[in-house]
Amino acid sequence: MPDPAFLPYHRETYDPETMLARSASFADWLDLRRSVRQFSDQPVAKAVIEQCIRAAATAPSGAHKQPWTFCAINDPALKKQIRLAAEEEEYRSYHGRMSEEWLEDLQPFGTDWHKPFLETAPWLIVVFKRNYEWVDGKKRQNYYVQESVGIASGLLLTALHHAGLATLTHTPSPMDFLKKLLHRPDNERPLLLIPVGYPAADAQVPDLKRKPMEEVALFFE
Ligand code: IYR
User: Fold this and answer.
1) What is the pTM of this model?
2) How far is the CA of 124 from the centre of ligand 1 (A)?
């Protein structure tokens, strides 16, 4: 007998025309998601953040180990500490650690070491990956951790977009300060820092173009 037991699986499906319409409208709607760097300080209910994390945690994972922890922060004092620590690292990155090529590639986005959104956004969600677990005093490996937590993070961004919220996929580097500030155990590493909230009334995003279908997909029929 396999463990866990298997259950029958059925789900709603659609006729081909409906399927095409649904997939097209979903892509159109997802195309509206943008990385936002100017947030309003308007509060967002904790219950919404919880539901979005619940959605993220439905992600597939290696051997169903669910190797993630989501830390959601709206304590202003902690957000300030995170901002200061992130800005310290970012200052060093922008003043020597990042290559000329990298800085040149970032020019169109107008980013620099200042990260006020880490205090303005009502929530910061830090996604941690768990490389291993301690089970009955024994170290047990997790599998495909990067892939699993990457997928969960994608679902999180999608869920937050679906809730009508804006996000930024932020990666102050290195991110070890988050592990310290949030008292995370040895088996966890921060993967992403995601400010969440309403965009500021005057928020602007760069005029980006997404790659066309023929550049992102090949069909072998
Ligand atoms: N982490 C820095 C730099 C940065 C890097 C990339 I790649 C971006 O797409 C955007 C920014 C920062 O957040 O400013």
Assistant:
1) 0.96
2) 17
Q: Which two tokens stand for residue 187?
A: 């088996």
Ligand 1 pocket: which of 106, 173, 178, 205 to mutate (most atoms <8 Å of CB)?
Answer: 106
Residue owning the nearest CA to atom 8 of ligand 1: 106
Across the beta sheet with 166-167, the strand order is 68-73, 123-130, 188-197, 166-167
Q: Is the pLDDT of residue 3 over 90?
A: no
Return the best residue to mutate from 88, 111, 115, 178 for the ligand 1 pocket (most ligand atoms within 8 A of CB). 111
C-alpha triplet 113, 114, 117: angle, nearest 5°: 130
**Phi/psi-derived region of residue 137, left when phi > 0, alpha when psi is between -120 and 50, beta in every other case:** left
Tens digit of each residue's pLDDT (9 = 90 or more) over 59-116:
999 999 999 999 999 999 999 999 999 999 999 999 999 999 999 999 999 999 999 9
